[in-house]
Structures are given as C-alpha cells and as structure tokens.
Amino acid sequence: MSSPPAPTSPAFDFDDSHFSYPSGWAQTDGGRGGQIIRVTTLNRDGAGSLRNAIEASGPRIIVFEVGGVIDLQGLILDIRNPHITIAGQTAPSPGITLIKGGIQTYTHDIIIQHLRIRPGTEGGNSIDALETQRGSYDIIVDHCSFSWGTDETLSAAGWGFAGSNLQQWREATSHRITFSNNIVSESLNTNGTSYGSLMEDNATQILLYGNYYAHHLERSPNFGGGTQGAVINNLIYNPGQKFVDYTFANWKWDREGGGARVNGIITAIGNIGRGGPSTRANAFFETVSNGDVEYFGADNWATRFDGSPYPELRESTFLNNPQGRILIQSAPTMMPPGVSPMPSSQVEAYVHRSVGARPWDRDAIDTRVLDDHSSRSGALISSQYQVEGYPAPASTARPFDPAQWDLNTMTPRSSAAL
After folding, report:
1. In whole angstroms, what separates CA 244 from the centre of its chain?
2. β-strands 411-412, 405-406 pairing
3. Crossing angle between the packed helical segments 347-354 and 364-375, to the nearest 10 degrees
C-alpha cells in the first residue's frame, strides 16, 4: 500500500452538506412530522430539559433555545420511545455539549445530529459517549462529536445472543445503524481499554461513513463475531495497536451461541489510516479471531508515522490457536444502499471541512484533535485533564424560529439560522 497525496484542509464556508448524511441501511425519518419540543434549560432534568424531551412519547423533533453545557452528573440518557430527532444544529452558539454522562438507545427510528458528548472520568466507569443497545435499529448518528469514553466512545451494542437462532440474535441487537461524519476521539485509558468503537457480535447492516477516529489504543473501529458492516471514507489517525479489526472469540460463541460459527462480512472502501506518535499497528485491517471474515477492500491506504506504507491485511496470532482467516471477496457483499464512496485522495480534506458537531462553530477540543492530524502530533490519554479538561463556555439563549428551518430535513434555510 503506497501513500495517497498529502492532505489539504480548505477553509470552511456554510454548506448544506453539513446537515445531510448517507442513510445506508437505516431508512428512517426520525421524528419528522411530530411535535416540536423546545429545550429551554441546561439543567440535566426537569421542565424544559433535554431529558424530559427525550422521555416524551410520540414523534418529536427536539430543538434547542439554549446553548452551552449540560452536566449530566453521571446520568445516562436512555432513549426508549421511538420516532425522535435531536437537532443540535438549532442551538445558538456554542451549541450543546453533554459532559459527565452519555446517551444510550433502546428503540428505533432515531436521528441525532450536532451534539457533543464528553463523559470523561467523572461520567462513570465503562461508559460510551453514545451507544446503541439492545432493541436499537433504524438509527442515524450524524455530525456529532464524541470523546473521553471510559469503555468505547461510540458503539453499536446489545447482547448478540438473545433468542434461539441467528435471525433472532441479529434482530435483538443493534442493526441498521449509520454513524456518519462524526469525530470520535481520545477514548480514555482508565482501565487498559482506550477503545474507539465496537460493533458487538451479530450487529448487522452497520455503516461507518466519513468519520474521524483519533487517539484510540484499538477499535477504530472493531467488529465482533458474525458482524456485517461497511467502513467507507473514514480517516483514522494515531491508533495505538490497531486501525480496523475483526474479533471472533470461540469461547463466547461456545458459551452463548451453542457452538455456532458464523462468518463476519466487512466491506472497506476509500479509507485513510495515518500512524501517529502512539501507533504500533501491523496493518490497515487485522483479525484477532478464531473465526473467518469475508472481506472486500478497495482504495484503502495506511501509513506509518514515518510515512512508509502498511500492508492492508494481517491475520493475527494473538489468540491461542487462532484459526480465523480473511476470505478476500472479489466484490462487496455488504454495500449500503445509496452510498457512493469518494476517492480516498479526497477523504482528509473532506474530514477537515465537514465532520463533527457544528463544523461552522467547532469547539477547542474538536479543533485540536483535527490539528493533531495535520501536524502529526497528539497522544493517547487517560484523563481529560491531560488536555483541556471539561468545556465550560458561557450559556446562551435564542428563540427557535421554525420559519428559518426545513422541518423535514432540519436544514437551515440560510446561514442566518445558525
């Protein structure tokens, strides 16, 4: 694998693409057509809070008349009622940042855009910033920023063996999930983890598109046993030990799956991996597995810190008696509908221009981790206090004017709405 051209970072200007996403397999309108619920306080709960809006029932679009930080004080916001859109783009500058907690989903038809979630060490042990859990499907998480998870930071999870057969296992755990245009950075190495994203066993139809992964020991992302997904046009910077990897553990499938063996299926197209100061990886895609994975790869490039190329594939010998093979496919078995990959040579510029929450109004944390890629700097961290610490911008307020927004797409009609 030789290196593509050096990255460029064009200046940002307002663009409708910052509110669009590839649906992939997650065909959902979220809360379109439902009631508009206004968040009017930065309190973690009570009247006018984000928590109250999330816990409401029926189709709903959550908009924000406040900007600033919501301190969750260790709380996880559970989304259990379907048909919901959370439109962080409607908040006045500096937007909405959740700290010391996170979000989990247990239902379907959810769209989340333009939130920042930063749990940190005071958010609790072994939590993700955002995690789709059992019962989650038809979910789109787009243009958000996640950092400082204490397990993974952004994951498609659930228990992959609920039921008596493979179809039931797949229906019970996360499926038809799109994670697009997000920044996933600086998972915390508090207990030897420092993991970016995990697609748990039997998660299916998972699309990871246009995301920026930075400063994770492993799992940027990782796919568990029997998973099916596509990794398209992502930029991965400064992983510790691995870029993208697949793991099938016989002991888990013997204990929970009755000894079943199911191939994983992964499509990887147009991704860029850049080694940084912490990187000790072996290849762009690596198996740490007792089971096989069907892999289609095209136009993927990974380079070491010194610029020399990595191989694309490696079958690891890390596990005892590893038997997992990479079964190279001549065409993609898993290809999300409606997705046309861009050439990998465009990915780095795209990421700098487009990803994360509110790219027209980035906070200092997102700006820094993107600058790390440009300067080939930064490191794995174990506490948010090794960098900025929790953000604490002044709070702001502004009434939400529905006339300034296309309520079907939650796209502003002009930059004056932002």
Report:
1. 13
2. antiparallel
3. 160
CB atoms within 10 A of CB 338: 10
Cis status, amide bond into 82, omega within 30 of 0: no
Q: Any idea of the CA torsion for 8, 215, 393, 357, to the nearest 10 degrees?
A: 60
* Per-residue confidence (pLDDT) for residue 323, from 0 to 100: 74
Q: What is the mean pLDDT of the chain?
A: 94
Other C-beta atoms lying within 10 Å of the C-beta of residue 335: 16
Q: How far apart are CA 320 and CA 157, in angstroms?
A: 25
d(CA 54, CA 394): 24
Quick count: other Cβ atoms within 10 Å of Cβ 351? 26
Length of the chain: 418
Lookup: tokens for 269: 């197209």
Sheet strand arrangement including 137-142? 35-39, 60-64, 84-87, 108-113, 137-142, 175-180, 204-209, 228-232, 264-269, 293-298, 326-328
Are the CB atoms for 85 and 30 separated by under 8 Å? yes
Query: How crowded is the C-beta side of 73, counted as CA atoms within 13 Å?
Result: 5
What predicted TM-score, i.e. pTM, was given to this entire model?
0.95
Tens digit of each residue's pLDDT (9 = 90 or more) over 176-215: 999 999 999 999 988 777 899 999 999 999 999 999 999 9
Determine the Cα–Cα distance for residues 409 and 232; give it in Å rounded to an integer. 23
Buried b (16+ CB within 10 A) or exposed e, 152-162: bbbbbbbebbb
346 contacts 9 by C-beta, under 8 angstroms:
no
Q: What does the pLDDT look like over 313-346, one tens digit per residue?
A: 998 765 555 578 999 999 999 999 999 999 999 9
